[in-house]
Amino acid sequence: MVLTKVQKAxxxxxxxxxxxxxxxxxxxxxxxxxxxxxxxxYGDKKQYTLEQKKRKGLKENPKYTxxxxxxxxxxxxxxxxxxxxxxxxxxxxxxxxxxxxxLLCKYNPWQKEPNIDDIVDSLNNAMKKKK
Length: 131
Known about the structure:
It contains three helices and four strands. It is α+β, with helices and mostly antiparallel strands. It has a domain at 64-122. The chain has a four-stranded antiparallel beta sheet with strand order 3-2-1-4, with no helix packed on it. The termini are far apart.
């Protein structure tokens, strides 16, 4: 079978187009990005902001409840502490000179009421162990 000049030109053009498209596809395969081995910071992702983490579900929005002053306790050493009680037995212990009537505290239901003497004793024992 003998091909004419026109047929040879058509076959050459088709083969050339196939080769060009094949090399183009192979050179852009998998959509890889350039990563510098010298400068590893290039192309790093930024950390998400707190708001973005909340929207993506990576971090939960903490729930708060209104805690009211339950009692003021003075320890053996003379330090005064305020114990607040919120919804579903949420307790908060704050050491202050003047205790406000109520405050917002994190919702943590079904806690035991804190005992200031036990806390002070555990702090003293921890300080003794460090020495």
